[in-house]
Amino acid sequence: MTRRFAWPARLWALSTSRFGIIVIAIVGLVAVISVFWLPFDPKSVDIANRWAPPGWPHVLGTDGSGRDIASLLMAGARTTVWVALGAGVIATLIGLALAALGALTVRWVRESIAVFVDILIAFPVLLIAMMISAVWGGSLWVVIVSVGIGFGVNVARVTRPELRRVLHSDFVLAGRASGLSPWQNLWRHLLPNVAPVFIVQLSWAMAVAVLAEAGLSYLGFGAPPTEPSWGLLLAELQSFISVHPLTVVWPGLAITLTVLGLNLLGDGLRDVTDPTLSRRGAAARTHVPEVVA
């Protein structure tokens, strides 16, 4: 097996990361299918079928308005994927920009960026989202931007020391001696070598984005009532948990499995891309205990 495909094979070999890959693939597939087909219109109200139990044709039952819960979950998967990808893109742009400025610029700029990052890290993601929503109103864009900013700072904090470490490597010095500019060195040598650390942070950022969207929608700061959302559905159904407890299980289970899958995928990526963990695992597998007579 070539070296290029070695780490995906190791990632799939781990049971935890394999579970994460399968869960994320299912959520992504459901989100794509929901664009073209849904069992029922998630906005359609059918009073005659209020609180229908799981069965046919409502596989997961209906809510207090007669809406099909399975259709609401499928439509909500679209929102979840959109928020996770959008927050991931913003976190990537902000994280890489701050990390590059904090690693490749002059000393006073580097120190200013480090202080700026430390200040922003003091603000939790949910607090940033509530502050932004207080000005612009609750929407999915509030969740995407706030999570992207909040976790982009975390990405910068972790990636910046790695960039500084790789910056003093022999191949980077050789590239500089051959006439490469700092930004050419960044694209050709630095970013590929810090990509494993960055990918792990990005997977965790997407997990936080899913959880933040559900939490903010539950509190009324996220998706508007017209948008399908797992958090919004959970907020609507939790008032009836004592009467219809099964209906609350489905959105809660969807949120839990998606966040768990992204976190386990991030852990697996860390295990297969961190050379120290890889060497430690290989040493443990090849160690043969001595037999004491």
From TrEMBL:
InterPro entries referenced in this protein's UniProt entry, alphabetically: BP-dependent_transpt_permease, MetI-like, MetI-like_sf
Coiled coil (residue ranges): none
Any one Pfam family match given in the protein's UniProt record, by short name: BPD_transp_1
SUPFAM superfamilies, A to Z: MetI-like
Stored CDD domains: TM_PBP2
Domain ABC transmembrane type-1: 77-266
Membrane spanning stretches: 21-40, 81-106, 113-132, 138-156, 197-221, 241-265
Membrane topology summary: Multi-pass membrane protein
Compartment(s) where it occurs, according to its Swiss-Prot or TrEMBL record: Cell membrane
Keywords: Cell membrane, Membrane, Transmembrane, Transmembrane helix, Transport
PANTHER family, per the entry: OLIGOPEPTIDE TRANSPORT SYSTEM PERMEASE PROTEIN APPC (PTHR43386), PEPTIDE ABC TRANSPORTER PERMEASE PROTEIN (PTHR43386:SF25)
Family (UniProt): Belongs to the binding-protein-dependent transport system permease family.
Name of the protein this chain belongs to: ABC transporter permease
Source organism of this protein record: Microbacterium memoriense
